[in-house]
Amino acid sequence: xxxxxxxxxxxxxxxxxxxxxxxxxxxxxxxxxxxxxxxxxxxxxxxxxxxxxxxxxxxxxxxxxxxxxxxxxxxxxxxxxxxxxxxxxxxxxxxxxxxxxxxxxxxxxxxxxxxxxxxxxxxxxxxxxxxxxxxxxxxxxxxxxxxxxxxxxxxxxxxxxxxxxxxxxxxxxxxxxxxxxxxxxxxxxxxxxxxxxxxxxxxxxxxxxxxxxxxxxxxxxxxxxxxxxxxxxxxxxxxxxxxxxxxxxxxxxxxxxxxxxxxxxxxxxxxxxxxxxxxxxxxxxxxxxxxxxxxxxxxxxxxxxxxxxxxxxxxxxxxxxxxxxxxxxxxxxxxxxxxxxxxxxxxxxxxxxxxxxxxxxxxxxxxxxxxxxxxxxxxxxxxxxxxxxxxxxxxxxxxxxxxx
Length: 404
Hints:
- The protein is built from 15 helices and 17 strands.
- It has about 400 residues and is of the alpha/beta class.
- It has three domains: about 5-120, Rossmann fold, CATH 3.40.50.20; about 150-215, Dna Ligase, domain 1, CATH 3.30.1490; about 220-370, D-amino Acid Aminotransferase, Chain A, domain 1 (2-Layer Sandwich).
- The chain is globular, with a radius of gyration of 21 Å.
């Protein structure tokens, strides 16, 4: 065993002996993998409620894996409550890693707080970031720019898109996984394409949950984020990042290559939104700078996001800081240092090959982008098994999406 491995084993042994309260992590996706590594490397017990995603369940830092029974949100809530009672999890931190679980936990915050230290704010706060209709209303109130957007309650509303093409059709919130929510948005270049996309979207979800939004053009240099642990509307530990590559590149389901940067304008815009919500918890706020240089708000993710593990290398280890805050321990103000990179190699390579084929990226520039400090999304020397399991899991999930 390596010296690093022995150190982690010794820390875990000491923590077990002193009964350190742990965390119950909802989901086993790659976001959850970053959470259990952040906590497990410090000897904090991490249990997983495993769903269709299995990646995080292969980590050596998971102390226990439990499978929730099939059923709707209330069944899942009852399972979590029963788990807390049966297993003595009072005082543990509860961390959701999906939109559905974040909504469930926020809506039942008071009840779950009888046992857990809940890792997202109550619903009256979280809904402003969860529901994009409210998100853009909040942005309007705070003086933060956002793309032209309408709620398309019927086909007559589509006429308002004239003069705004290209546009996208996207859900205001994620009800359930379907072809639209899996893709995140569908693009339309003209009224004919918009009508076809809208009709298909209405087949999947209520029209009142659909947004038509002007597409903001630009490459990875214009895709910017603020990420933070906020407490009562103030970012305590934070960083700014450029989401340089994503898959697919035009409208990405997920980032594949991210770099921390310094951007005061992004920080100022995010600060106004956080203060207006009085948000407490982990959050990523996504912006895009349009061709006129205007910073436009796109989305807010009020839970752990895909590339949150960049924080451990940049000096703001978000899950661990959240755990400390919820446990009542001090969290010193901190800002992530610029120039740290994060990559999910299994999805970044196809993105890079596609960009190189289209002559939008050179091989030399791609190689230069991989200079350290570099944090891998999945592979880690002290926890290698998820790296070996990733490709089969991605293949299975891709097959499931094709069936939607």
